[in-house]
Design a protein that fits this description.
Blueprint (H helix, E strand, L loop, with lengths): L20 E4 L5 H12 L3 E6 L6 E2 L13 E2 L3 H9 L5 E5 L5 H15 L4 E4 L17 H29 L3 E5 L19 H21 L5 E6 L6 H10 L8 H13 L2 H4 L5 E3 H7 L2
Parallel strand pairs: 1-2, 1-6, 2-5, 6-7, 7-8, 8-9
Antiparallel strand pairs: 3-4
Helix pairs in contact: 1-2, 1-7, 3-4, 4-5, 7-9
Length: 288
């Protein structure tokens, strides 16, 4: 039986499932924020991460040529946590820097200390800074390594610590927010409508995690999913559109958030998608 969204777009968890303890990375804005709110509305307890828990974000850009570098985006993960708590759920926040393995390890240990066990991870956070969408001749190899380690190795650091409790729960779920850049060739170069080598390599590496984990651990009731959110409007896109006068394109992050919640809820249809890439808009369409 497939779980359908109700009139408000909420997807109830299965009655026997009960509240989960879910770690959501990159939860201060965008897809991470929307996902945290959707899961809180379902009654799940949350551990939310961001680079800092208080204050806004100083945008670091995606290229050395990014004219938005230094812009301040409002909002914090602590503010998101307060919104989530209005649903009566328990929410903890922790600062986590993807480029610092000790910080990632500490975040995982903090989650276990606070909740005893974690059964679900939503891996949404990515490296932020120049290099993501620079052309190869502008990309230092050290930056390339840093982007790949942040996007593809940091989630594995989390999993090394949290996987035992995920397997022990008998209902562990890992959802990676992937991207078309993981598998597609851009039509244009970075800076002209395409994407950079570092971003493509990092997302491509991270994209491979779900399928392998699904095969290795599905006998324990564990599921792993790649969720492709599609083209989503971001704070940076909105800020850039305000400077240029162009309209920011893209879909709402809530579409991806409800797709993630649907995968976690674990209907038969969701379980059948384990190890695969799912498209957020397809899930949204089929759940209507």
């Amino acid at each position: 039986m497939q779980y359908m969204a109700n009139a408000h777009g909420d997807i109830p968890p299965r009655a026997h499932d009960g509240p989960r303890a879910i770690l959501v990375t990159g939860a201060s804005r965008g897809i991470g924020r929307a996902t945290a709110l959707a899961l809180a509305a379902q009654g799940h307890n949350l551990i939310l991460t961001a680079r800092s828990v208080d204050g806004g974000l100083q945008y670091q850009g995606t290229s050395i040529h990014d004219d938005l570098i230094g812009e301040i985006f409002s909002g914090s993960v602590n503010e998101v946590a307060e919104q989530c708590r209005s649903h009566g759920v328990r929410v903890e926040t922790v600062a986590m820097n993807l480029t610092d393995e000790s910080s990632v390890q500490a975040a995982a240990e903090h989650a276990l200390t606070k909740f005893g066990s974690v059964d679900t991870i939503v891996s949404n956070a990515i490296y932020q800074g120049p290099g993501i969408n620079d052309r190869f001749d502008d990309l230092p190899i050290d930056t390339l390594r840093r982007v790949i380690e942040a996007d593809a190795v940091a989630p594995l650091v989390l999993l090394k610590t949290l996987l035992p409790s995920m397997l022990a729960s008998g209902r562990g779920v890992y959802v990676h927010v992937t991207s078309g850049t993981a598998t597609l060739v851009p039509r244009y170069p970075a800076g002209q409508g395409g994407w950079g080598l570092a971003y493509a390599m990092a997302k491509g590496s991270a994209h491979r995690i779900a399928g392998i984990l699904q095969v290795e651990y599905q006998q324990h009731g564990f599921r792993a999913h790649n969720l492709n959110p599609g083209h989503v409007t971001t704070d940076a896109m909105i800020a850039r559109s305000q400077k240029t006068g162009q309209v920011a394109t893209g879909q709402s992050p809530e579409i991806a958030a409800h797709a993630i919640a649907w995968l976690i809820a674990g209907s038969d249809a969701a379980i059948a998608l384990g190890g695969q890439e799912s498209i957020a808009r397809d899930i949204a369409r089929d759940a209507m």
